[in-house]
Amino acid sequence: MNRKLAARCLAELGNLTRLDIYRLLVRAGPSGLNITDIQTRLDVPASTLAFHLRGLVGAGLVAQEKTGRAVTCRAQYHQIDAVIEFLREHCCEGFESDLPAAVTRRAS
């Protein structure tokens, strides 16, 4: 995952309504929820929900599947896993290798 996409995903989840939507979809599991269920459970107006879902879908955090007139939304676990992996990518490696050679020599 690149920095730009990681930042976009985190920005989308940085909004309380979008965070609530995403957590609700995670709770629903792989079967997801249709838009009407999301709207009812979160008490969000349809136009507001559509706006927030558009952002989550655009960041790859939510997928939508249309069946007839119903639209089912599902959390995309691989995307949030990729964001978390990006954040932990260099965990506990330290900074020694990032220092210029002159600084490393002075420390010795």
TrEMBL record:
Keywords: DNA-binding, Transcription, Transcription regulation. InterPro entries: ArsR-like_HTH, HTH_ArsR_DNA-bd_dom, Metal_resp_trans_reg, WH-like_DNA-bd_sf, WH_DNA-bd_sf. Signal peptide: none annotated. Pfam families: HTH_20 (PF12840). This is Helix-turn-helix transcriptional regulator. Residues 1-95 form the HTH arsR-type domain. The lineage of its organism: Bacteria, Pseudomonadati, Pseudomonadota, Alphaproteobacteria, Hyphomicrobiales.
